[in-house]
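Intended use. Records like the one below are meant for learning the mapping from a protein sequence to its folded structure. Do not use them to infer anything beyond what is encoded.
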Amino acid sequence: MKDEQLFELADLILAVARHINAAKEANAESGTPLEGAVMRFVDRHPGTTVNAAAEATQMISSNVSRAVRGLENKGLLRREADPDDARRVRLYPTEKAAENLQRLRDTWSALLEGTKPAEASALITALQGIETRLVTRSRSTT
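Structure written out for the chain above:
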């Protein structure tokens, strides 16, 4: 792909993300971008650790710990001692987080209504591939 196409792709992703993010603010409990990144990871990986979340989100663990405290204070995340190693803490979404995620799904689905299924499927596949490459690239440079 040419640089112009790659720039246009990134620019359009950001433009669409701004619309999606704006819709979220009205209907779902929202936090900082850092909290959002951590919550996304915990929702997809219940029982994860702060260190795993930090690695996956490419943030330092002290920032992730701060986000975890904020999410706990909002009632969206809970910590549990690891049953195999009491020194380790596991992170889980709460029922409130599940309800919030459902409101987010409803809001975003309504926002994107009219998108053709084949178009959505192709975009999901493409963006998953891009995300995987970006994560792999970032891990190889750290």
